[in-house]
Amino acid sequence: MVDRTVYANDKTPDLPLRQVFGRQRVHQDLCRLAADSGLLTVETFAMLGDDIASVKATLKNLVPDHARFGTDAPAQELALTSLAAVWKTCSTMQDHFAARRAKMEEDPSKVPEIPGEDHAEFREIFVNRHPDVLLPPHREPHRKFVERVQRDFLVHGFVHFYEVGEIRTRNEQIAQKTGLSKNAEDLLRVVMVDQPAAASSESQVMDKLHAFFITLEYLNICEFTNAAGPLKYLAELEEWRHENRGLALLLTVDTLIRKKVHRVSSDQRKQFTNFSAALLEVLTHHKQLWNDARSSAELDKFKQALHTTAPSTPVTKKRDRSTSRSPPKSSPKSKKNKARRARQKLQLQKARATLAAQSAGDKSGGSKKPSRDERVPAKEWQTITSFKYSGPRRCPFYNCSLGCRFGDQCKQKHEEVGSPPPGVWTCEPPVSSVTNDDQPSWGAQTRLLDHHQPWPTWDSVPSSLADLQVRGPFFLELFAGKAGITEAVHLLGVPVLPPVDIALSDLVPTPSDVVDVAVWAHIMAIIAAGLVFFLHCGTPCNTFTAARKLDGGPPPLRSKEAPEGLPGLRPSDEVLVFLGNLFLERSAEACFLVFALGGDFTVENPLLSLIWDTAQMQQLLAGARAFALDFDQCAFGTPWLKPTDEAQIYPWSLCATLAVQIAQLFVDPFAHLAPSFGLKVPAHDRKRELLSTRPWKVHRQADTARRALAAGYQLKRGALKPLLGIELEPGEAIRWVLQVPHPFSQAAGLPADLEQALQHVVHKGAQIVHERARLLAFWERRAQELLPLSIFRIMQQPDAALRRLLLGALDPQSAHLGSICHVALYEEMLKACGSVDTDLPDLLLRGFPIVGKIAATGRWPPYPKDQKVFPVQEALSRAWDLRSKIVHRVAGVPVSENLQKIWDATIEDVVEGSCLGPFQAAEEVTTMLGCDDWIPTQRFEVVQKNKVRGCDSATTNMINQITEITEKLQLPSTDMNVAALRRLKTLAPEAALRGWVLDERKAYRQVAVRPDHRKFSVICLKNPATNKPVFFVMVGHSFGLVSAVYNYNRCSAAINEILVKLFGLVAFSFYDDKYGFEPASSAPSAKLVAERVHTWLGAQFDQKKLQLSSSPTILGVTYNLDLMQLEIKRERRDDLLEEMDSVLHSGLLDPGSAGKLKGKLMFGASQLWGKVGRAFLRSISERQYCKFPNGGEFKLGKALEESLRQWRKLVAGGPPRPIDVAHERLSDAVIFTDGFTPDPRSPERLPDRIGAVLFDRRLNAPRQFTAVVPDQVKNFWCERTTQIVPIEMLAPIVALQTFADRVRGADIILLIDSEAVEGALIKGYSCREDICLLISIFWDLALSLRARIFIDRISTDANPADWPSRNLMDRGTSVGWSTVDPSWPRVLFNGTCGPG
Predict the structure, then answer these.
(1) Hey, how many other C-beta atoms are within 10 angstroms of the C-beta on 838?
(2) 289 neighbors 282 (Cβ within 8 angstroms)
């Protein structure tokens, strides 16, 4: 239903908005009022406000004369309510459109339906607009086709090209077929797609084209008029088809023109903003397309005539005597076509005469030279015919630049004139120009290859990758055929691996079958080691070829709709299709890996091969940002377009041409950028002295930053030394950064023993399992043998409570493995693994000191910070005052359910021997300890989720203040875990990984306190039954002591050292959590070793918390080892969502809760991709440090509420942090950005401007752009004296959007000459709202592109982007840079942003 209001010509609302007016039954006066106010689109209406009140206020501001709403107040309110209802509908539509578009982008097979009433309204509007146009069923578009065009236009923003068979009319029955989804993330999902219907006649083609253009008017894309283009095109096409009969001709010309329109509308959107403009451009300025179609048709006729064996006399038809027909009109165009056909007919006659003469000459055995063809240059013809040779006549056209059009049907021999005899050619082919005259014989080159190639066959290739690394990297050719490219590459001095093919030839003396799993595993292992810098795949096309047709020859096995294979094939054909798919998968797998490791590849197949339509190839082309290079092999000297022999035989010119490029990549991949390397800044413009350095002080978090870098992200600005520490010229800076390995690709600096364990589990998988079984049997025997010694040494201790804790039993006879602290086994195992912590067994036996200096381990570095430590004696002198204060505090604790829980847990400790008590009075404690200067510690409750834990406050009683830390504790972090996993995946890319987790039970309680230090570990706790304070004396360590952290982690680190060094586990320890990652083949043995070792040593663990999984949860983080990504633990995610929902529902957030929530969200952010979402922490951080609430309550403001909503979206479905392969490789591209704002002191007022330059080693020319910053973007910025920071921040954002095609999925180095911008982007948020918004846009854009961006600073003098930022584009153009138009993210003009 559309409103029928008559509007002014320039103020007519869009159809969707008029549909809303109609459905809401808005009065015509209100419709005109809205149109007069500029509300012409759904989008404009949706932007009126956030709620109904703000919308009404905005409408009143837009219409100063409120009387236009109505004569009195009730009428005005009713009118405003009616328009508010329109706003509500428009807002809902916008959200619906956005959600629908996102779903359609996720799954292109989904086509949303158009309601029947809307479709009927489309037809009604069209009929009313065009009463002279009939809509019979064979010309009216099918509803399904209209829905598809609407879907495609909504998703992509332009009209796609549709084959004629895809255009459906209402009289057709649409059949659907089952196929595989083309979504790269869901390749195996079965979907239903429409089966195209081929056109059977010229009239049917014209009908379908009418339906296509009618569809465009249905959807308000393009009017069905002569002025807009469709009727003009249909008229010209109709005239053309009457002059050029034939269905194939009509389809050819229509395809050429509509494909050109599609390319113009998609590639030049700024110049041609709509479909009509693109269509008119093609019809006006691309008239050569009509001739191209004719030329193609005439060429087909020419070939068909040549294949005719004998002339045939056509049947004479009776002349039509009817006089009713009028003679055809003679136009200049028809005269021109008639003359052209006469010329072509004459050329055809000459060609037949030439063939006849040559045939007669061959029969007579004469050697008369053929007469020159007019199409061949005279000098070239003379050169060709000047060669002397004997034997069958050689085709001269085959040897000229024109090429022979007859192919295999040619009656003369296709062989090069002037080709040297076999065995003579020994020199390298010229690099500058390689012709057929330089083609060598295969036999001669076999000797040359055998002489220089150390491994002529794969049987002789070393299995040790270390031996190969000495000679690599290599060129490798898969499906090599006769290995022409390998030969040519090797002749240029480039190391090559033996070519891979199953067909034997001179250069393939032994077959190598990629179907063989062992052969393929060997090849992939070499590629995974980074030893192949260039890969060529001549993937067989026998099943993908478009030459298979239903014409009596080999039947088709695939189609465009089913490129993976047609259903219902014969068993023999199914085998062929299976092998073809396997070859394709092998090719794609190898190419993906070579590209991921920084190499390059080529895949060769015919242009019309169906291999390009497969999901695997489409995914490869998109993921590798590959280029398509189309060429005919006849241009390199062959009479064919594609080799048809049983093996790949490329022309030597093609092999040599490719070899030159491959050799250039091997020697210097940046040679094409040499002009840019010479760029310099004039001396008088330089701000800093050339080759000067900036001092850089080693950051205290440098080690942490290195681990973060190895895990794939940056910690903070300045934590690591910048890439460019020397002042250089711009050209030298470009060269330097391009040759630096991408920081994220560098392998982690793991500890030597951990690296050795990684190597063992990967390269000795089967052996290490047997070795561990042998070691388990040995050490279990030693544990039993040493058990009496441990019991004896424990029983020698004078303290009964200490003996009870160490034995794990009341008497020595009850002690057994699993309960006893096996100090003798500790001592022997630590000695066997060469541990530096030799004092640990004695400390375990006698107990650890908990005040004063913490006993050093020699394992960790010295503690670097200054500490304020009080003497122990000072605390002892205040023992009575401290005791009185603590007891008084405990007495005031109310009795609660949580107090009862920690009381029960303390009594459980007494039963297990880690605690003594309860003591009802202080005198009892004094008697038990033998001294009266003991200091109690208050035990209070800590609620962790659904668990209550007792914590001892050792700060208020000075216990922690009299403890001195001696070493800096170093524990594995999430970054260390990710770095180890990256290394493991790099070493074993094909292996399935598993993780194991072990959690010790009451870990601190198992470590004894030295008996004379128990006076510092007295616990004071209220008895909930008597409501009075009582005392307990800890035998094990308390939770809350600083010393407990170091003393326990000392034991934990020792056990982990045993696991790594003695048993070869890839293991880590973080407090009481022990875990590790290994291939699935050895992970169960690792878990078994961890369990047994802990049992032998007496470190008790919780059986219920043991894990062996492909998705282990470690410290609240889930490591998805199948998808190789980090995920927020499900329980933690649910808790965060519940907490944020509670805050949003209450509308309140106090500073304390904000601080806790921020900490949880920052931890959650570490499991999300990049820095996405960190900008939304700013509002929460501000509330954390807010002291004075507005109106007496800490209510949520708009910014804070938006931050919480955005974080809720991120926590619920944010992008996980990936764990990719770590292999050192060059950056895919380097981007320099800069911003410019005029000096306020300068009288010259220049506009604010940004610029950027992209250097991609796979692009022939760097790209640059410059852009003036629009005022609409700056309107959202905060006021400043100078806006240089947001301008500099804007440049990287626009650069990512502009260079998106080369940034997507790439390793990028981004260089900025602003420290403020560099630091803010790396950190992920800022204290300024507008900067925070820009940061969020940057990381959302990086997320959508999945770009791995390393950000660093470059000095202004060395920054080549300084020139485009000042509109000095000639500097780049002079050295070959191409200038592109900038692309601005739309969100920059909205002033709002959400997660990507």
Answers:
(1) 12
(2) yes
| Cβ count near 195 (within 10 Å) | 13
SS3 455: coil
Compute how many other C-beta atoms are within 10 angstroms of the C-beta atom of residue 536.
Answer: 25
As a whole number of angstroms, the distance between CA 1222 and CA 1228 comes to: 15
> Measured between alpha carbons, how far is 599 from 100 in angstroms, rounded to an integer?
39
Q: What share of the chain is helix, strand, coil (3-state, %, to 5)?
A: 50, 10, 40
Q: Average pLDDT, stretch 959-975? A: 88
For residues 701 and 751, the answer to whether their CB atoms sit within 8 Å is no
691 and 705 Cβ atoms separated by less than 8 Å: no
> Tokens 């900067």 — which residue?
1331
Mention every residue, 6+ apart, whose C-beta is less than 8 A from residue 288.
Answer: none
**Each residue of 975-985: b (16+ CB within 10 Å) or e?**
bbbbbbbbbbb
1173 φψ region: left (φ > 0), alpha (ψ -120 to 50), beta (else): left
Please give the backbone phi and psi of residue 605, each rounded to the nearest 5 degrees, phi first.
Answer: -160, 155
Question: Is the pLDDT confidence value at 534 over 90?
Answer: yes
Query: Could you tell me which residue, 711 or 1129, shows the higher pLDDT?
Result: 1129
Is 1219 buried (19+), middle (13-18) or exposed (0-12) by CB count in 10 A? buried
CA atoms within 13 A on the CB side of 1318: 22
Give kind and range of the element (H or E) at residue 938.
Answer: strand 936-944
Residue 1308, SS3 per DSSP: strand
Distance CA 648, CA 501 (A): 10
pLDDT band (50, 70, 90) for residue 179: very low
Residue 1252, φ and ψ in degrees, nearest 5: -155, 155
390 against 1134, higher pLDDT: 1134
Read off the amino acid at residue 174. Answer: I
- State whether residue 1071 is helix, strand or coil: coil
Angle between helices 73-106 and 15-24 (to 10 degrees): 130
The amino acid present at 476, given as its one-letter code, is L
Q: In this predicted structure, what is the pLDDT of residue 409?
A: 52
- Encoded tokens for 600: 């390059």
| C-alpha dihedral sign at 978, 984, 987, 990 | negative
Kindly write down the DSSP assignment for every residue of 503-544, as one continuous string. Answer: S--SS--S---TTSHHHHHHHHHHHHTT-EEEEEE----TTT
User: How many residues comprise the chain?
Assistant: 1396
Cα dist. 750→270, 760, 762 in Å?
Answer: 51, 15, 16
Question: How many angstroms separate the CA atoms of 617 and 610, rounded?
Answer: 10
The answer to whether 292 and 256 have CB atoms below 8 angstroms apart is yes
Q: What is the pLDDT of residues 767-786, one digit of tens each?
A: 899 999 999 999 999 999 99
Measured CA to CA, the distance from residue 799 to residue 796 in angstroms comes to 9
CB atoms < 10 A from the CB of 1281, how many? 6
Residues 1214-1232: tens digit of each pLDDT: 778 888 777 788 899 999 9
The Cα diameter of the chain in Å comes to 138
Give tens-digit pLDDT for 293-347: 766 655 555 444 444 444 444 444 444 444 444 444 556 667 766 776 676 667 5
For residue 765, count other CB atoms closer than 10 A to its CB: 16
Measured between alpha carbons, how far is 476 from 794 in angstroms, rounded to an integer? Answer: 66
Distance CA 917, CA 911 (A): 10
Please, what sign has the CA dihedral across residues 407, 412, 418, 421? positive
Total H helices, total E strands in the chain: 47, 26
Calpha distance 821→841 (Å, rounded): 10
pLDDT score, position 432: 29
Q: What is the pLDDT of residue 385?
A: 59
Over residues 847-861, the pLDDT tens digits come to 999 999 998 998 989
Beta strands 532-537; 474-478: pairing state: parallel
